[in-house]
Amino acid sequence: MYQDFGSEIKMTLNPFIFGSASSLECFDEASPCILEQTSMCVIKVATDSAAPDAAFPGQDQYVPWLVCMDSNNDDGPGCATSTGVDDSAMNTCMESDSALIDQYLEIDSPIGGTPTVYVDGSNVRTTYSAISRALCKSDPTMAACSSLQLSEEEEEEVPKCTYNRDGEIVA
């Protein structure tokens, strides 16, 4: 998705946490949700260090970092190095920026489960074809839209699992 559309759309990634700052919860790790907090700091560090004239500040670092993490067993230092994320700044953020937890608790409050994808404010199925179709419907002039062969009838793969706030797997 990022390879096809990342240079033309803003991708907002929200490390998903819920509960409260004193009783933080997440889906795929135990509290205090260190991987989610690391993701928050990567987004902050990459955004803060981006060029002032960048179309989508930090996105060229934090999206590839997340792809790397998902593909390499959460190798934080290796992914920081390979994507250009300032590991030292990320560690400083982890040690000192507790306000990020409150910020993401607020951002994440309307999200009912993961993964969740919105295009132009509308919830979209989390398959490549559904997201691509929604993006191209929104702006058919994007470069990737001219090469995609997506039909309305195309069978979509159902996501492996979606979690709700109670930690239950839902379809």
Global geometry? globular
Indicate the structural class: alpha+beta
Distance between the termini: 22 Å
H/E order of the elements?
Answer: HEEHHHHHEEEHHEE
What's the layout of helices and strands?
Blueprint: H1 2-5, E1 18-20, E2 23-25, H2 34-48, H3 59-71, H4 76-83, H5 87-96, H6 99-108, E3 113-114, E4 117-119, E5 122-124, H7 128-138, H8 143-147, E6 162-164, E7 169-170
Antiparallel strand pairs: 1-2, 3-6, 4-5, 6-7
Attribute tags:
alpha+beta; three-stranded antiparallel β-sheet; two-stranded antiparallel sheet; 8 helices; globular
Structure overview:
By secondary structure, this protein is α+β, with helices and mostly antiparallel strands. It has 8 helices and 7 strands; from the N terminus they run αββαααααβββααββ. The chain has helices at residues 2-5, 34-48, 59-71, 76-83, 87-96, 99-108, 128-138, 143-147; strands at residues 18-20, 23-25, 113-114, 117-119, 122-124, 162-164, 169-170. A 3-stranded antiparallel β-sheet has the order 3-6-7, with no helix packed on it. Strands 1-2 form a two-stranded antiparallel ribbon. A hairpin with a 4-residue loop joins β6 (162-164) and β7 (169-170). α2 (34-48) packs antiparallel against α3 (59-71), α2 (34-48) crosses α5 and α3 packs antiparallel against α4. The radius of gyration is 17 Å and the shape is globular.
Brief sketch in words of this structure:
With 171 residues, this protein is α+β, with helices and mostly antiparallel strands. 44% of the residues lie in helices and 11% in strands. The longest helix has 15 residues, at 34-48.
